[in-house]
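Hey,
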Amino acid sequence: MNQANCLTQRRKDTKAQRSSYQIIFLASFRLGVFALSLVLFACVPSEMPEVLRQTPGAAVVVDGDRYTNAAFSALIPAGWRAINAPAEAAPAVTFAAPDGCALIHLATLPANPPTAPNCDQPTQTLSRAIPVNDQIVYVAGSAPTSTWDTFTAQLEAVIASLR
């Protein structure tokens, strides 16, 4: 009986020792999580970074195939890119064809017809003033002479969509 009592006592000691290791492990784990969360919270900036602040200039919305700015709205020809004017400039946009040679420029101030810098084909240009909502929208365009008929059809569609 005495010997059995000794074995039982050893088991209790080992269990007590094991549970104290578990307590120490759990406490150190919790302390580590707490320290890690302090480090992560320290990474949160106290001020909003410049990148997240609103950029200067009037708002511009490109919703599907329609471009809208503070002065006018127009349909973007299928597959064309819309290139917005700088924030400090008057409202304007340039639509660029996928081939990079045809351009349509819409603005509230008169502008010379744009020319594509990487187009080595002979081009034609045109300029018009279109009345839209009690103001004038200046339309200027350029395209290679080989695709002029297709370009003018797309230009007329853009002009018809002006609001």
